[in-house]
Amino acid sequence: MFAYICGKVVDKKPTGAILDVGGIGYELLIPVTTYEKLPPVGENVKLYVHYYVREDSHALYGFYTMEEKDLFLMLIGVSGIGPKMAITILSGTSPEQFKERIASGDIKALTLIPGIGTKTAQRIIVELREKFASLRKELSSDNLSFFTSEKMEEVFRAMVALGYGKSEAKSLVLKAYKKLGSNASVEQYIKEALKSI
């Protein structure tokens, strides 16, 4: 019904935002990842939306990127996952991390997200894994260790904080990982990643 909404941010909090569109206030439920990207109150923003209708509730869910919206739709298609749980899952991880965890079958990493137990994590992986089959093929055994390592995620976040785009940062960190192996320190990985630029 709705694809996206463009409007002025009237109010925002980690779980929701209100956009003014031509004098009408639209209340959107959002994941934390979208909240972190919202502009200050008073500025305009475009959010992709999904209008969720049940007998007992109608709600608009908003997402900063189409990728987040697509993942939300996939998640609510998993048996036992409702929109609130889907928003919680999206709030607990980036779309890239989530896809990588599904593709690699990383149950442990998924259970770190609040509200996700082992059985739910297994069900999500079973039902969504084929959708990320192409990504799974890209993950070699080296890449698998990289994507599921907290240490490498820390290095990746550091590179992003230094101003590199996510895809560039991922490529640089992966090069450093392949050169140094799995036993280097966070600092050593960062230095090696910066050297390869």
Brief digest:
The chain has helices at residues 32-35, 66-76, 83-91, 95-104, 107-110, 118-128, 133-138, 141-147, 150-161, 166-180, 186-195; strands spanning 4-13, 16-21, 24-29, 44-54, 57-63. By secondary structure, the chain is of the alpha+beta class. Strands 1-2-3-5-4 form a five-stranded mixed beta barrel.
Care to describe what's here?
The protein is an alpha+beta fold and 197 residues long. Among the domains are: 1-65, OB fold (Dihydrolipoamide Acetyltransferase, E2P), CATH 2.40.50; 141-195, Orthogonal Bundle (Helicase, Ruva Protein, domain 3), CATH 1.10.8. Helices cover 50% and strands 20% of the residues. The protein contains 11 helices and 5 strands, in the order E-E-E-H-E-E-H-H-H-H-H-H-H-H-H-H. The chain has helices at 32-35, 66-76, 83-91, 95-104, 107-110, 118-128, 133-138, 141-147, 150-161, 166-180, 186-195, and strands spanning 4-13, 16-21, 24-29, 44-54, 57-63. Strands 1-2-3-5-4 form a 5-stranded mixed barrel. Helix 2 packs across helix 3 (83-91). The chain is globular, with a radius of gyration of 19 Å. 26% of the residues are buried. The mean pLDDT is 84.
